Amino acid sequence: MGSLLEERFERWKSETLAKSVAKMPEQAQRAVTVSGTPVEALYVPEQVPDGSARDAYLNKLGFPGEYPFTRGVQPTMYRSRLWTMRQYAGFATAEETNERYRFLLESGQTGLSVAFDLPTQIGYDSDHPLAAGEVGKVGVAVDTLADMEILFDSIPLDKVSTSMTINAPAAVLLAMYIAVGAKQGVPADKLTGTIQNDVLKEYIARGTYIFPPAPSLRLITNIFGYAAEQMPLFNTISVSGYHIREAGSNAVQEVGFTLADGVAYVEAARNAGLDVDRFAPRVAFFFGAMTDVLEEVAKFRAARRLWARIMKERFGAKDPRSCMLRFHTQTCGATLTAQQIDNNVVRVTLQALSAVLGGTQSLHTCSRDEALALPAEEAVQIALRTQQIIAHESGVAHTVDPLAGSYYVEKLTDEIEAEAEGYIRRIDEMGGMVPAIEQRYPQREIEQSAYRYQQEIERGERVIVGVNRFTAEDQSLPEILTISEETTRRQIDRLATVRAKRDATAVGRALDALETGARKDDNLMPLILSAVEAYASVGEICDRLRKVFGEYEE
Amino acid sequence: MNASRPKRILIGKVGLDGHDRGAKFIVRALRNAGYEVIYTGIRRTPEQIVRAAIDEDVDAIGLSLLSGAHKELLSRVAELLKGEGAENIVLFAGGTIPDQDLAYLRSLGINRVFRPGAALSGILSALEEALTGGRSTGGGATT
């Protein structure tokens, strides 16, 4: 036996790795290079003498599947299971979207990701005046459980995991998902997936808020509490940096603000009396990936290490799973250009590669036509094929954290971590994320970065191929997806039919009970579940909560 | 009206769409170019937009939409402006608006639509032309 590092490496192999492989064997696929050289699961520095370099390695990087998880949350990463290929999709009504989901699953996609339209995301029914023109546009319209039943028709919820981008009314859509599962005979404790449920970033960057921060945090912790008992496999939140990045932040701000949001949620849950290790293992994250490949890789690694330290040192988490930053990645739509749209396929490839090299758990690749409209089916297929090529042809999935030890990547990882920690400290000094948002601190920081970035493009200091360099005459554009006005009519008709057929007394009783519960300190999840089971609509439920909680005004 | 008064532009987000990166950039860039700019913030109704435009006595309204709801919402704004006798206010748009909808927007009197990748210099010169020449019937920059 040699140095301490070798000793620890051996221990990782015999304990952490062996345990993981026993549970989830490495794939039979050959992990070899094109030349035939076998590829190991993990490479570590060779012949490092005991001393400061060794200590730095063990403290800052360690081994995958072990604290501080810099090198990855799983010991074998993609050797046992590839990331989940999860294309964000939803448009028009539940019928059209269900058809798209089945197409994606048949094309080899491994999980679903639901895009809801804006009225659903803001808690308005399709017949609400503010929904005019918006029904089924950026996602699927869901008013009642009847829509959700069609959305998941012939999709077995015990086999497919579902991510739902829903925030202010997350509890309502989660309740509908539970109800659909029950109708399929799948109990809540077998359901897998994620709800975004991250309202703080709605105030900062995304805009689909309904209620003020305090009741929003209550709804979120209600979900944490309910899921800890009833649905242990479900991710109860996806703390999202993606929208912060898309609004124009840089990579450091993305990590800093996202993890500061995460801190706020953990604190809110602790204040509500929940034990950290009861809910923290189900907290997930969501980041963007831009085209600066190596900075992105460093960002993902830095975020993992920083979160692990926060959970252990600040919150005293004991369960290693509480310290694991598991994340979904989406390639950054704002980087796509309307000019020479095929170039976007290349941008997305680089961005997706950074996510895989950075150890993502799931991935959405944007489609080449997204600067123009919702993606058409052919464009979505190319985006999914991009992931499949990275997974099966590039070889980067053969070994864990392949860029570890790169002088550049390690230095960037250290710097991003330190600077992001600086942002979190600054926000702590302001009294936490809610006061910081009220002072518009993250908003101003993001606006500043976005303005600077765009100015660099305008001045030609930052080259965007096809936009400010290497331009060409616009080519003819492919067919794009449009949502007809007939969609709105069909959706409103269905809502009217459901309202006519349901037991109005039962709906009224369930909504009254919800309103009463909201005025007290009750966990609202069971009350919302009863309401959706009676076919109360998203708008009706949210209206009752608006009555009690009020609305957030920017 | 004072001829030397800087032109006033209202930049707004109409509908439920929260994507405000482009709108905020334009607000700042127009201010730097010497315009007086009023920004409405996100999630405004057509009624709120037109009310603010009239109260603030603006020369132009620029609306940003990335939600695909541009046809319905912009036609409502144009209709309300007409109802207020405020058709002299130049209406322009930005966002993810496909080619096939440009003719319809022109029929509403919206001749300037700036889409992803539009250069700021082109936006500024198109606005200057529109604001010095009143409501232009020309093509204007569209990308």
Biggest interface reads: A-B, 43 and 32 residues
Give the oligomer, counting copies of the same chain as homo and different chains as hetero.
Answer: heterodimer
The tally of structural domains of chain B comes to 1
Please state the overall shape of chain B, judged from the principal axes of the Cα atoms.
globular
Q: Mind telling me the C-alpha Rg of chain B? A: 14 Å
Task: Determine the mean pLDDT of chain B.
Answer: 90
* CA-based shape of chain A: globular
How much helix is in the residues of chain A? 40-55%
Please provide a written account of the structure:
The complex is a heterodimer of chains A (554) and B (143). In chain A, β9, α13 and β10 (362-364) form a beta-alpha-beta unit. Chain A has helices spanning 4-23, 52-61, 94-106, 118-121, 145-151, 170-184, 200-206, 213-230, 242-246, 251-271, 276-279, 293-314, 343-357, 377-392, 407-429, 433-438, 441-458, 485-501, 504-519, 525-533, 538-549; strands at residues 84-85, 88-89, 111-115, 161-165, 193-195, 234-235, 237-240, 283-289, 327-331, 362-364. Chain A has 554 residues and is an alpha/beta fold. Chain B is an alpha/beta fold and 143 residues long. Helix content of chain B is 38%, strand content 17%. Chain B has a five-stranded parallel β-sheet with strand order 2-1-3-4-5, sandwiched between helices. Chains A and B meet through α4, α7 and α17 of A and α1 and α3 of B.
